[in-house]
Amino acid sequence: MSEAPGALRSIAGLVPRGSRVLDLGCGDGSLLQLLIAERGCRGQGIEIDAQAVVACVSKGLEVIQGDVEQGLAGRPDGSFDVVVLNQSVQQLRKVDAVLLDALRAGRQVVVGFPNFAHWTVRLQVFFLGRTPVTPGLPFEWFETPNLHFFSLKDFESWCRLRGVRIQARLFLDKDRQVRLLPNFFARDGVYLIEKA
Questions:
Q1: Residue 82 Cα to chain centre, angstroms
Q2: Span 84-96, average pLDDT
Q3: Which one-letter DSSP state was computed for residue 3?
Q4: Which end of the chain is more exposed for a tag (fewer CB within 10 A), N or C?
């Protein structure tokens, strides 16, 4: 899923300047490139899609082709200041294990994901009785890369259950922030989390 430039800037704003960053599921490297160019970060990525890796390398980014569900095993505890999982966590088979491993390898983790409780999703399920297709979730049920369909409230519940501290929250609809009823009006949620 491609992010609006304003959304990427909002996400980048959660990452402290000069951080050592690992971007898991970095896609074409747009966020990683922004973090390096504008936040002075030192970064690398892990991406499973070969074409996306080529796009990253063509931008001069350090990216390893690999599966993020297996990509952190050799990384020492606290080896990164920030680990990023933006628009990829809902596509993982082992969400719990990857998030906990990211919290081990990084001092902080930025997690961005589509909010499956957005009003457009709710309306399509309620009135059409079908799996929703929206600008934020542009796939038919039979071709979606998403394996987990969760909301902002679901993610916050996971944080409480696992004893994870939420340091910051951003609720976005395209490239603008949502402040009123985010679980209903925000298309995406972005969280900065760390171990309690």
A1: 12
A2: 92
A3: P
A4: C
pTM score? 0.90
> DSSP letters along 115-141, please?
-TTSHHHHHIIIII-S----SSS---T
Give me the amino acid identity at 152: L
Structural domain containing residue 79: 5-195
Question: Looking up tokens 């390893």, which residue turns up?
Answer: 64
Helix (H, G, I), strand (E, B) or coil at 52: helix
d(CA 50, CA 125): 34
| Strand intervals (E) in 61-187 | 63-65, 80-86, 106-114, 164-173, 176-177
Distance, in Å, from the CA atom of 39 to the CA atom of 54, rounded to the nearest integer, reads: 23
Structural domain count, the chain? 1
Q: Is the pLDDT of residue 4 over 80?
A: no
Tokens of 143: 């071709």
Read off the CATH number of the domain in which 104 is found: 3.40.50.150
Crossing angle, helix 30-39 and helix 5-12, to 10 degrees?
50
Backbone torsions φ then ψ of 92, nearest 5 degrees: -85, 145
Residues 6+ apart with CB under 8 A from 196: 163, 164, 165
